[in-house]
Amino acid sequence: MLKYVSTLFIVLGIIFIAFFGYQLFQSKQSQKDSLANAEELISSYKGKESNEEGQTFQVATNEAFATLEIPKLNKTLPIVEGTDADALDKGIGHLVDSVFPGEGEQIVLSGHRDTVFRNFAQIEIGDQFTVNMPYGSYTYEIRETEIVSEDDTSVIRNMGEEVLVVTTCYPFRYVGNAPERFVTYAYPVK
């Protein structure tokens, strides 16, 4: 009897490992596809005129439309419109109610700490982000960070100036649904 129970636990362990391995593979593949789509969109806009940077730019929900470069982490990640589960599986989510770079107000990006923002604990004040949009590239420098509770919505607000707000779950090594959010505030580099 003990032999059968041991075998059952081994088989269940293999099934769980295979399941989570498959999910990780799917997530990585989805992000890779989104990055390719975003880079293709960016290159297709090269040389096209746009009235007032970003003012005429529109994107569909769950569509990859830009990239976020994080030099400190040596990463280029896709930005997807929306912050629902589907969008966040594809890359970094852009909050639909926030503006795009070049529009002079708050831009909100969110991502999972265990996928796109793995190693985000290395980020410090003074590090830079570059958002590559179809209509241009925008570089921002982190000037402040904060940790807020998961239900704190005061982070999303009119700021009266262009600010790139990037959020992820915190603590970084937490297992399960993290109770807090790590928030960076990055300002345009002139």
CATH class: Mainly Beta
Helix content: 25-40%
Give the N-to-C terminal Cα separation. 71 Å
Strand arrangement, major sheet: 1-2-3-4-7-8-6-5
Q: Give the strand tally.
A: 8
Structural class comes to alpha+beta
What is the CATH homology-level superfamily? Sortase
At CATH level 3, the topology is Sortase, Chain: A
Low-confidence stretches: none
The number of helical runs is 2
CATH architecture: Beta Barrel
Using the alpha-carbon principal axes, give the shape.
Answer: globular
Using only C-alpha atoms, the radius of gyration works out to: 19 Å
What's the mean pLDDT score? 88
Biggest sheet architecture: 8 strands, mixed, barrel
List the helices and strands and how they pair.
Layout: H1 2-45, E1 64-70, E2 75-81, H2 85-90, E3 92-94, E4 106-111, E5 128-133, E6 136-149, E7 163-170, E8 180-188
Parallel strand pairs: 2-3, 4-7
Antiparallel strand pairs: 1-2, 1-5, 3-4, 5-6, 6-8, 7-8
Active site: 112 (proton donor/acceptor), 169 (acyl-thioester intermediate)
InterPro entries: Sortase, Sortase_D, Sortase_D_1, Sortase_dom-sf
GO molecular function, one term: hydrolase activity
